[in-house]
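I am writing to request your help with a piece of structural work I have in hand. What I wish to show you is a protein chain and, alongside it, a tokenised description of its three-dimensional fold. Could you please explain, in whatever detail you think fit, how the structure tokens follow from the sequence? You will find the record immediately after this paragraph.
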Amino acid sequence: MPRRLVPSALLAVVATTLPACQDVVNQCACTEEFRAYPVTVVDAAAQPVAEVVMTRTHLPTGAVLEPTWLGMPAPGVYIVADDGLIDVFSSDGDLVRVTGVKGDASFSADFVFAVPDPCRCHVEQLAGPDTVVVR
């Protein structure tokens, strides 16, 4: 759930009734959920591919990104970005190129991530595939 602007009179009510972080200056209340955006890596037979070496490059700066949560939720599923990268992305959206290598096979895919709300609560994926194929 995205962070919403809260009128100052309601801020105290929201702060006491919702488990949330608060930004009193901007009159914001954020949920405590942690968002992560995965991609599933499969082979030509649509089977999940484990042990892919992933590189996530923030194209506006050239920085290599590492999500905070690097666990694999399921075989062949990798986290591309998460809320731990909230300070990296602009409100308009930034291009992230993800490459993966497993032996002689590889893939490259582009994603767009942003932090569009004024309170900057969560990263949001604006574009990018759900599944990629290593070839």
User: Anything to note?
Assistant: Residues 1-20 have pLDDT under 50 and may be disordered. The helical segments are 8-17. The CA atoms of residues 22 and 29 lie 5 Å apart.
